[in-house]
Amino acid sequence: MKAQWKYVEKDGNPKEPGVYWVTLIYPAWVNNQCNGKYYAEVCSRYFADLDKNPELKGWIMNNEPETGMAWTEECGSIKGERVHAWMPMETIEIADLPAGVEKI
User: Fold this and answer.
1) Burial (Cβ within 10 Å: 0-12, 13-18, ≥19) of residue 104
2) Mapped to the 3 state alphabet, what secondary structure does the chain carry?
3) Judging by DSSP bridges, how do beta strands 101-103 and 33-49 pair with one another?
4) Cβ-count burial of 24 within 10 angstroms (0-12 exposed, 13-18 middle, 19+ buried)?
5) Is residue 2's pLDDT more than 70?
6) Which band of pLDDT confidence, cut at 50, 70 and 90, is reported for residue 82?
7) Digit-coded pLDDT (tens) for 41-57
């Protein structure tokens, strides 16, 4: 049976810290300005318990809480990215994307 994506906006974040495959959606930038296009890619991200690992606070993504559970920047980051969906590490593929988001 194929592993299913858990959509952050529907199902919330994982319950346990760890590394997950995530579909990241981020804006395209030209000359340091967002040009209105959005792209998606699959990458790994660490979901950290900041209460148990406060040293990871410097690694959290934009708009994440500074306590409790938060997504960190496990791989390269582009300003304005957000986690759209997550799944366990067993499989890698891209999640169903919102309208207007292109896969790279």
Assistant:
1) exposed
2) CCCCCEEHHHHCCCCCCEEEEEEEEEEEEECCEEEEEEEEEEEEEEEEECCCCHHHHHHECCCCCCCCEEEECCCCCCCCCEEEEEECCCCCCCCCCCCCEEEC
3) parallel
4) buried
5) no
6) confident
7) 888 899 999 999 999 99
